[in-house]
């Protein structure tokens, strides 16, 4: 397919990622500070939303695998999820004066339910529009490119708000909401009309949770990819969770605290085309190994940070941006290949389910990273509320900031070494699937 057509199909990635960072990093703080919603209440509401989102992912993935309609398998879920996502975003980003806790709770539930109903079928559909091994890497790279662009746009908006009206929380929310809604509704139309959502021959399988769990836990290839991706996102989570502390306290550059994310993600826009070429040249699994080793080396370099080496932080942040999402890109593309392998072996189409648990591994890895890294640096003596931290505490902060991601990326590379599902094996799988599907389709044609 043409790049323009694939970009059209990928349009919904922009609002999804443009909303994700503000909803986590800005919305709770702004609703608490400027609208008077208790911070503890907001924490519970957003935690409940994330839990519901995680529980819905495998359910929606399984149901979308079994959906049969004249609109296709994925389209009905994406359409419904897109409307819920837009409604939840409108409630959260455009709160009325005197907004109530119930209003915020409604927005959180609609946003997270819509995100789940939208993103899981969209990821599954992205793996189905082509059966070609390298074309799937190309599609995943376009998703990564648009997600990087959306992150940069979202990070620029607070800087614009501060230039227009410093300290105006309502303006920040309005700018975020305008970006999300102005791309969500057109993106919904662009994605749903870009490519056919053709339903393959019916392949019955049990919808029970036990059968779904067996399809996941009984697939060693999928478990390797899930473990690798959880390690990748854990490393990213440690880096994200500690970056502001390192820049502000260990390096003594508080003016760069927010700008460092924007600096890194700006280079991230260039990452997807680079790593798409690497994946095509080496294959996905070996491309993922190289990507993780590169990121491990970059993070080991962070051990040499000090207050008088801020230039090193800038250099490594730029390199981190150029490798941003490289491992995730390869691993996400491999999930579709594993679903093909599973369908050939069992007759069960589990593409939606496999992408849903892949999404859960991303959330789990990031959550575990923050849950471990923050208490660890506190135990080692770092206190962001202290008037001054000891040199040892600041040094340990840098060590955890560097070694956490470095070891996580190294673990991901180790897990993907010798991965057996390569281009040659996948080509044979697709050949056998197409032959079997042709026989099944011919059997449904009535004899003349």
TrEMBL record:
Q: Which Gene3D superfamilies match?
A: MFS general substrate transporter like domains
InterPro entries, alphabetized: MFS_2, MFS_trans_sf
Instruction: Look up the coiled coil feature and give its residue ranges.
Output: none
- What's a single GO MF annotation on this record? symporter activity
Q: Name one GO biological process term.
A: carbohydrate transport
* N-terminal signal peptide: none
List UniProt keywords, sorted A-Z: Membrane, Transmembrane, Transmembrane helix
Extract one GO cellular component term from the record. plasma membrane
Membrane spanning stretches: 35-56, 77-97, 103-127, 139-161, 173-195, 256-275, 287-305, 352-382, 394-421
Entry's Pfam families?
Answer: MFS_2 (PF13347)
What the record says about family reads:
Belongs to the sodium:galactoside symporter (TC 2.A.2) family.
Q: What is this protein called?
A: Sodium:melibiose symporter
Which species is this record about?
A: Novosphingobium fuchskuhlense
């Amino acid at each position: 397919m043409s790049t323009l057509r694939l970009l059209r199909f990928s349009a919904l990635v922009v609002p999804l990622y443009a909303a994700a960072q503000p909803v986590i990093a800005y919305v709770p703080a702004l609703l608490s500070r400027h609208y008077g919603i208790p911070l503890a209440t907001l924490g519970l509401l957003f935690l409940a939303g994330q839990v519901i989102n995680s529980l819905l992912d495998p359910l929606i993935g399984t149901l979308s695998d079994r959906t049969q309609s004249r609109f296709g398998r994925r389209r009905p879920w994406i359409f419904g999820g897109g409307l819920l996502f837009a409604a939840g975003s409108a409630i959260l980003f455009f709160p009325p004066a005197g907004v109530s806790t119930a209003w915020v709770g409604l927005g959180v539930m609609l946003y997270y339910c819509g995100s789940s109903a939208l993103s899981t079928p969209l990821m599954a559909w992205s793996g189905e529009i082509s059966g070609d091994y390298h074309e799937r890497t190309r599609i995943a790279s376009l998703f990564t490119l648009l997600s990087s662009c959306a992150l940069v746009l979202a990070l620029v908006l607070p800087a614009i708000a501060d230039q227009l009206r410093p300290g105006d929380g309502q303006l920040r929310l309005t700018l975020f909401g305008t970006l999300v809604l102005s791309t969500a509704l057109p993106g919904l139309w662009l994605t749903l009309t870009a490519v056919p959502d053709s339903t393959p021959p019916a392949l019955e399988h049990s919808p029970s949770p036990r059968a779904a769990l067996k399809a996941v836990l009984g697939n060693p290839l999928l478990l390797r990819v899930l473990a690798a991706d959880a390690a990748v996102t854990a490393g990213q989570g440690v880096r994200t969770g500690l970056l502001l502390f390192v820049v502000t306290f260990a390096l003594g550059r508080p003016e760069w605290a927010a700008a460092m994310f924007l600096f890194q993600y700006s280079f991230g826009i260039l990452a997807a085309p680079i790593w798409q070429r690497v994946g095509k040249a080496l294959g996905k699994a070996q491309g993922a190994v190289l990507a993780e080793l590169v990121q491990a080396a970059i993070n080991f370099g962070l051990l040499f940070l000090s207050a008088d080496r801020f230039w090193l932080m800038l250099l490594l942040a730029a390199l981190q941006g150029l490798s941003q999402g490289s491992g995730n890109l390869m691993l996400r593309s491999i999930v579709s290949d594993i679903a093909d392998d599973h369908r050939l072996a069992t007759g069960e189409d589990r593409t939606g389910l496999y992408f849903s648990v892949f999404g859960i591994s991303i959330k789990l890895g990031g959550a575990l990273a923050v849950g471990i890294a923050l208490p660890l640096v506190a135990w080692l003596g770092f206190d962001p509320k202290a008037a001054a931290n000891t040199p040892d505490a600041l040094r340990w902060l840098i060590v955890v900031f560097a070694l956490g991601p470095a070891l996580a990326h190294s673990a991901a590379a180790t897990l993907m070494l010798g991965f057996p599902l390569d281009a040659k094996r996948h080509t044979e799988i697709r050949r056998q699937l197409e032959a079997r599907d042709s026989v099944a389709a011919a059997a449904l044609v009535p004899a003349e």
